[in-house]
Amino acid sequence: MMLPQLMNTWGRAPGGWTKIAMVIGIPMLVIGMGRFIFIKETVAIEKADDESRKMSLVESMKALSHNKYIFILAGSLLLSNVMSTISSAISTYYFEWIVGDLGLLTVASAVGLVAPFVLLLFPIAMKSIGAMNFIRIGLVVAAIGNGIKIFAGASLPIIIIGSLLASVGSSFLGLMVNVFLIECMEYNEWKTGKRVDGYITAFNNFTGKLGSGIASGGVGLLMAATGYVGTAASQPDSAMGAIVAMFSWIPAVFCILMLVILGFYDLDKRMPQIKADNEKNRAL
């Protein structure tokens, strides 16, 4: 929320980005070092005595390859990170060139603070419709919100409504991904008899970083390809069209693609039997 205001104040001045980096970076550095120095680790790590449980990289990757659900989840998370990174990056362009006031981005960004409170509904959703159905409903809401932004233009009220729906709906998957990662871990043990929890987590993190990297580079390439020039007093219609597209209907398409991919995820329905089978096998 603070960044748009700093960019609007210092962004175009000589040395402006240095000031912005210092204003944000120095407090974060102090907080990070404070956590490192003053917060002690209290978790005791038990060493595994059973050497037979250790697996090589090849064995672990082979076990992971039999888990189709982690690929479904990872593909969805990759698209989610591409979408969120594009939306975050293009918002600056949109408010500068379409709305005409970069400072108003702070107001629109504030709607994202609502998302964590919506998660209070998660326990109810788990009992009534299931976690994955809750995610799917969120993606439908996000697609509608991004669709609304297609018609927003410079209207701040419409932008806020669309951004609120898009932000809240698309946040569910990222905020609750650990629930599904645990399901994937249980399934891997059930399917192959082997636990590869670390590789499942690492694979998930890799796809997230990959999605963010693809989006960051893609935004720059698309803006350059459509003739955007940051120092110009105005932008060509092609660049303006690209800004509107990445702010609205492209994220909506990503939401639909994630809905299609997650349509193949039925692991949540199978978990009671899988957990029961795993417990029996561990008792042997």
3D structure, described in words:
The protein is an all-alpha fold and 284 residues long. The chain has 2 domains: 1-41, no CATH class; 55-283, Growth Hormone, Chain: A (Up-down Bundle). 76% of the residues lie in helices and 0% in strands. The chain has helices at 2-10, 16-38, 57-65, 68-99, 105-109, 115-118, 122-128, 131-149, 156-175, 177-192, 197-225, 237-247, 249-262, 267-283.
Summary keywords:
284 residues; mainly alpha; Growth Hormone, Chain: A; 2 domains; 0% strand; globular
Tally of domains:
2
| CATH class division of the largest domain | Mainly Alpha
Weakly predicted, low-confidence segments: none
Q: What is the number of beta strands?
A: 0
What proportion of the residues is helical, as a percent range?
Answer: over 70%
Estimate the global geometry from the Cα principal axes: globular
Percent strand: under 5%
Order of helices and strands: HHHHHHHHHHHHHH
Summed over residues and divided by their number, the pLDDT gives a mean of: 85
- The secondary-structure class comes to mainly alpha
CATH architectural name of the largest domain: Up-down Bundle
Q: What's the name of the CATH homologous superfamily of the largest domain?
A: MFS general substrate transporter like domains
In this structure, how is the largest beta sheet organized? none
Count of DSSP H/I helices? 14
Q: Which fold name is given in CATH as the topology of the largest domain?
A: Growth Hormone, Chain: A
Radius of gyration: 22 Å
Report how far the terminal alpha carbons are from each other.
Answer: 55 Å
